[in-house]
Amino acid sequence: AQRVTQPEKLLSVFKGAPVELKCNYSYSGSPELFWYVQYSRQRLQLLLRHISRESIKGFTADLNKGETSFHLKKPFAQEEDSAMYYCALSGNTGKLIFGQGTTLQVKP
Amino acid sequence: DAGVTQSPTHLIKTRGQQVTLRCSPKSGHDTVSWYQQALGQGPQFIFQYYEEEERQRGNFPDRFSGHQFPNYSSELNVNALLLGDSALYLCASRRGLAGPNTGELFFGEGSRLTVL
Q1: CA distance B73 to A98
Q2: For residues B94 and B47, what is the distance between their CA atoms, to the nearest angstrom?
Q3: Closest partner residue to B103 among A43, A90, A100, by Cβ?
Q4: What does the alpha-carbon distance between residue B95 and residue B29 come to, in Å, rounded to a whole number?
Q5: Sign of the C-alpha dihedral, residues A44, A50, A52, A54?
Q6: How confident is the model at residue A28 (pLDDT cuts 50, 70, 90)?
Q7: Which residue of chain A comes nearest to B104, CA vs CA?
């Protein structure tokens, strides 16, 4: 079965602390993995995708096929990073399978 | 560019009624998908339209149907509403049906449906 699991509903850190949002997936094939973010009162938007191997707003994510994980990391959290983060999987068809989401709360 | 626009933003219906939600994709986009997001959950794929045809469908009953028009806009129809249909309905668009970056979608702000 195709599934995305985000084990933490809420992650609370202090400003300047490292952040790691966990994502594990189940997929038979070669998936594309994404992180989407929703800031307060804004629409859901793409943060980054694994094939780009890019860093966006200081965030990076590495696809680990052995552990079937795609954790999102940032070395120093900022208050403006507070948002809901969704990990998502696509099987090259445009259909996205989302995890349940993790709320990141960065305290001053 | 206004991006993906959806209407209405909020609506309240009673059980058994029917509802139609509308979506205009981002300029230049021709593929539209619909997602249901229940409270506290991630979005769930309902279906995808391209060239006015349903191309993929998620695990939703036939009460959920859709349409895409020649101008790429789309409608989501839900018949015989149940309390469990209360959710945020998101429309998303992209250019093309297949190819690289198929998972890069642009989302609307959603239509919040409450079924009483």
Answers
A1: 24
A2: 14
A3: A90
A4: 4
A5: positive
A6: confident
A7: A46
CA distances to A15, A26, A80 from A12, rounded to whole Å, are 10, 26, 13
**B98–A94 C-beta distance less than 8 A:** yes
Question: What pLDDT digit, counting tens, does each position of A49-81 carry?
Answer: 887 778 889 999 988 989 999 999 999 999 999
Contact criterion met (CB < 8 Å) for B45 and A34 = no
Contacts of A53 (CB under 8 A, 6+ apart): none
Quick check: A93 and B102 CB within 8 A?
yes
Closest chain A CA to residue B100? A92
Rounded to the nearest angstrom, the minimum Cα separation between A79 and chain B is 22
Determine contact, residues B81/B15, Cβ cutoff 8 Å. Answer: yes
User: What distance in Å separates residue B10's CA from the closest CA in chain A?
Assistant: 15
- pLDDT (tens digit, 9 = 90+) per residue, B13-62? 999 999 999 999 999 999 999 999 999 999 999 999 999 999 999 999 99
What letter would DSSP give residue B97? S
Report strand pairing: B87-94 vs A19-21: unpaired
